[in-house]
């Protein structure tokens, strides 16, 4: 998605502008906007990562369209032979070609059955892999954004906004250590995030559902799956060619 | 952000295409892609909501620029009088105008002190309100997206992707009730989400930090705050005019 790409680069620009604007300001504002800039830039980076993953999901979905396309000729061939037989049976019922065509139809039907089974299997497999991958990317992205937002709010608490009266000097800013620590904490939280540590969980009102199956699966594993099906598909392409 | 707007509308288009594509497919795929379409469309809707909130944040930040702009003339006036006094003291040290200018300078300094205090107060207040509002919007948006992703994964589990052999018929799809329930659960989860139910929390390595202060605050309240400062500012504008 090109538009997410633009969002990501706009985000980074916002981060830069914020830091630049803050620099010319008092110590507290300067420090906090600088750190907010770091967090917002990090969001831009996450968006970039998300785009790459979205592309992989798109490619997988496209491969479903590809196999759909490849099954079509087999369907058409079967239909064509069926039509030819019907035509001959009407025009020249004794023609020896009917028998030849009927044998050809059996072969075409066998090929078509295989093609349809492949389509049925691959469509489901790819759909599932692609969307599991996509939803996992979303979950990771979203939980990381929510984390950053939380650290952002912690940063803001360092900013003392109690009003000063004209001529009164604002108390000296002493949040440098804390703000640095918040950024370190945020970066640690992002770096150590895993699907096992994911906290947003859907509540399902039916019990039959076994969620564990997917919770253990991580994105790396799924990327591996995507690759396997991609390779498989490439191999099948080669056989078909 | 215009680019998020485009992302949202592209997202909805993806949802539509997915449902349309699925319609022509077998029951299981048709039902699941239809429901996936509903969830993805919901993401688009959330993105639209997020844009509106982003706009409000942008407007608040802009108001900081506005007050910065309004303080500038007062700074310049003070500087100009100071320069005039220095010039006269050098050129015509006995000039009675010096005394007049010095009295004018006292008034200008008083005005400037007020303006600087206003700038100091409003900048911090607005910065804090705007970013708290922005981070809360992000948190809400992100947690809701993560929720949707979780329900999406639950939907995918209804899709039986075990391969069939050529000629074999796939077991009839019986997931209609479950898929409908998943959508109902998802919509309930989104509708009942509140900041109190937010689960993604930053881990801060210093204890002095009191997080409660902001956790109780909700977006509605903050929107109220935004409004108050907007009104305040409008009122100040009127006084200035």
- What is the multimeric organization of the chains shown? homodimer
Helix content of chain A: over 70%
Instruction: Identify the biggest protein-protein contact and residues per side.
Output: A-B, 79 and 79 residues
- The residue ranges of chain A in which pLDDT falls below 50 over 5 or more consecutive positions are 208-217
CATH class term of the domain at 2-63 and 127-160 and 179-240 in chain A:
Mainly Alpha
Query: What CATH architecture of the domain at 2-63 and 127-160 and 179-240 in chain A do you see?
Result: Up-down Bundle
What does this protein structure show overall?
The structure is a homodimer of 241-residue chains. With 241 residues, chain A is mainly alpha-helical. Chain A has a domain at 2-63 and 127-160 and 179-240: Arfaptin homology (AH) domain/BAR domain (Substrate Binding Domain Of Dnak, Chain:A, Domain 2, Up-down Bundle), CATH 1.20.1270. Chain A has 6 helices and no strands. The longest helix of chain A is centred in the N-terminal third of the chain and has 65 residues, at 27-91. At the A-B interface, helix 1, helix 2, helix 3 and helix 4 of A face helix 1, helix 2, helix 3 and helix 4 of B.
